[in-house]
Design goal:
A 4-stranded antiparallel beta sheet has the order 3-4-5-6. A 3-stranded mixed beta sheet has the order 1-2-7. Strand 4 and strand 5 (62-70) form a beta hairpin. 22% of the residues lie in helices and 39% in strands. The N and C termini lie far apart (44 Å). It has a single domain (16-118), classed as Nuclear Transport Factor 2, Chain: A (Roll). The longest helix has 13 residues, at 99-111. It is elongated. By secondary structure, the chain is α+β, with helices and mostly antiparallel strands. It holds the Pfam family DUF4902.
């Protein structure tokens, strides 16, 4: 069940979230993020952000994350810092799981998605 609270989170169970369809809303390169990652010792070819939005017409769930293309193997990875969303997952009894638990579950969910395909490619 979708519900928008005064804190602007959309609340639902992970099962309900798993039923949603998503499309890429935006993906962009960010030189500042790339520099931040290099300062952390992460060698990158490029870095940026990506956001997906649910395609349902009720309340639109947004999931965003930072990413980078690795210098050594040229694969695309989630950048440190986690996943951001307007979603608050709830347990089966209806209580909020909290921001951290929601972020961890969204990160696990994202690992099973083919999100890398929509990332801009640097030649």
């Amino acid at each position: 069940m979708l519900a928008l609270a005064p804190d602007q989170f959309i609340r639902m169970s992970f099962s309900e979230f798993s039923q949603l369809s998503f499309k890429q809303h935006m993906a962009w390169l960010d030189d500042d993020l790339q520099e931040e990652l290099r300062l952390l010792g992460i060698e990158t070819l490029c870095a940026g952000f990506c956001e997906w939005a649910s395609t349902n017409k009720a309340s639109q769930v947004s999931v965003g994350w930072a990413w980078f293309r690795s210098q050594p193997d040229q694969l695309i990875y989630l950048a440190p810092g986690g996943v951001q969303s307007n979603l608050m997952l709830r347990c089966t009894t209806g209580y909020d799981l909290g921001v951290r638990c929601t972020e961890e579950l969204l990160t696990s969910w994202l690992a099973g998605q083919d999100w890398q395909r929509g990332i801009p490619f640097m030649h």
